[in-house]
Specification:
mainly alpha; 71 residues; 434 Repressor (Amino-terminal Domain)
């Protein structure tokens, strides 16, 4: 999964397990709107949020994808 934005990767992983944005936002303890902003590239997630995403989607390597996108 190279050249994917962080938001796209989150959407793909969320869809793989059949979760809505609301369900994922609840798991992350953030608002659905904030999650949608991150997915659309309008928000920058905290390191804590990236860590939570890695815990939920361990095979996706979300933190590594994010690091590459900010270089």
């Amino acid at each position: 999964m190279t050249n994917l934005t962080l938001g796209t990767l989150i959407k793909i992983e969320k869809d793989k397990i059949g979760w809505t944005s609301t369900q994922l936002a609840e798991k992350l303890n953030i608002s659905r709107q904030w999650l949608c902003d991150i997915e659309a590239g309008r928000g920058t997630p905290s390191l804590e949020l990236l860590s939570k995403l890695d815990d939920i989607f361990p095979k996706a390597q979300i933190f590594q994808t994010y690091k590459k996108s900010i270089r």
